[in-house]
């Protein structure tokens, strides 16, 4: 008997998660849906469900810094396709999502029928983008590509520490949030700097911000 397909929906807006669930159920009858509202929750969901068939990922959610979450998920879990679902619908944002490993990009403004069509296409092994932007791509900056590749070398905990660094948190604040010692955080920061090829926390934050995406005005919090 064929097992039901499993899809992780990652978005911090409950109403949009509900809309995505409707589209997913329309595209994949009998699907098992796992929900996540932060990037850390997405990572936990992927760890608990390594057999997931697809992740639908909003790049503007707590813990995510633009494409860094996408890059990290793809690097740590190459067998699970990721489709970006975002209100940032500029051509260059869609292009970068594909360049950084997404199997598709679904605008949040798309009708449910189109979202269902996109999900079906990706589950069948295809890449999906809005039809009108396919010929508009330029090349991603080499430095962005290099940093994206370096992100993959981070452990999940190191990635969470880097994300908190970009939020301006101090070592003791990060230690409190992660329930570990400050010495552990210092060791993580040292490893992060080495892996990213930078010399300071500030340089690491600046590098991480290269993968950032300006959130659409409707999603500003």
Automatic annotation (TrEMBL):
SUPFAM superfamilies: CheY-like. Gene3D superfamilies: 3.40.50.2300. The modification 4-aspartylphosphate is found at residue 58. Coiled coil: none annotated. Residues 6-123 form the Response regulatory domain. GO terms for biological process: phosphorelay signal transduction system; regulation of DNA-templated transcription. Residues 147-212 form the HTH luxR-type domain. This is DNA-binding response regulator. It comes from Marinobacterium aestuarii.
